[in-house]
Design goal:
- It is a single chain.
- Helix content is 31%, strand content 22%.
- The protein has 275 residues and is of the alpha+beta class.
- It has one domain: 3-Layer(aba) Sandwich (Aminopeptidase).
- The strands form 3 sheets. The protein has an 8-stranded mixed sheet, with helices on both faces. The chain has a two-stranded antiparallel sheet with strand order 4-5. Strands 9-10 form a two-stranded antiparallel ribbon.
- It is globular, with a radius of gyration of 18 Å.
- The protein starts with 17 loop residues before the first helix and ends with a strand.
């Protein structure tokens, strides 16, 4: 099997050729079976660091759904981490759903945890920084003051930058659609830091399908910082700033209801692997 060379690979490549995408998915599958010691037909949640060559497979699939993503994320690659839901049922052996998140970093054991690092110019959460920098009269102190006053630990907060179906939609796993498996994995990421009521938020750009899915699963969400008027920034083909009206920035707090939903569904979570 042809492997992706760490020496030869660009760090951030959105244009891996079809043969490279196919061999990369097989390499990812090999990593899963080797690290977990199983070849069971399953859905696996694979966390992939930004500079790992396998992340370029996810980037290439991401660009097929979001053609503007390379320009949008140009300055945020180091802050990105990828979650690939790999479906091995009926020998599908492919990435079936994927997420790009920010606000996470590697821990000493190689796992990934929520750990956003802020400074005077950045919240450490790409989605929030993008909104702040998009001319919507929303400042970094507005964000910090709102959530700090409610007792949230902003270092535990993460954001979903993109979230998309890859190819043909997969069947449910353990009775759950794959996007819900992804959100379960995201909450487990925060849980590694200690997931308590009222101390963490998962931020996301949600379209109509996503909001319906969240509501059907009983998950509560709210406008970011209480601002119903905030929009999702994007980039036009000519490189100018625009807004995507198909998406709305939302906050999914660690409320008592959401924690109960997470608890009830956690037994159905996909096995995790960190790459």
């Amino acid at each position: 099997m042809s492997r992706i060379s760490r020496q030869d690979s660009k760090f951030y490549d959105y244009d891996v050729n079809p043969e490279g995408v196919a061999s990369g998915q097989l390499e990812l599958l090999e990593e899963i079976h080797t690290k977990l010691g199983t070849t069971d037909e399953n859905v696996y949640a694979a966390w992939i660091q930004s500079r790992n060559p396998l992340a370029n497979i996810v980037r290439t699939l991401e660009k097929q759904t979001f053609p503007e993503i390379e320009d949008v994320m140009r300055d945020y690659e180091e802050e990105s981490t990828f979650l690939a839901l790999v479906d091995t049922r009926q020998q599908a052996n492919r990435i079936a759903h994927a997420f790009r998140i920010s606000g996470a970093s590697s821990s000493s054991d190689g796992s990934v945890v929520a750990n956003s690092v802020s400074n005077d110019n950045s919240t450490g959460i790409v989605l929030i920084d993008d909104i702040i920098n998009s001319g919507q009269d929303f400042r970094i102190n507005d964000f910090r003051d709102y959530y700090s006053s409610r007792g949230f630990d902003l270092s535990k907060c993460i954001s979903v930058e993109t979230n998309w179906i890859v190819g043909e939609k997969s069947e449910k796993f353990n009775g759950l659609p794959l996007p819900q498996l992804g959100y379960l994995a995201l909450f487990r990421l925060i849980e590694a830091r200690g997931l308590n009521e009222g101390d963490a938020v998962l931020f996301a750009h949600a379209n109509r399908v996503a909001t319906i899915s969240l509501a059907m699963s009983g998950v509560e969400y709210e406008p970011i910082a209480g601002r119903e008027d905030l929009k999702t920034p994007t980039v036009k083909p000519d490189g100018t700033l625009s807004f995507d009206d198909h998406y709305k920035p939302v906050a999914i707090p660690a409320s008592s209801q959401n924690l109960e939903v997470f608890k009830q569904l956690s037994t159905f979570a996909a096995p995790q692997i960190f790459i």
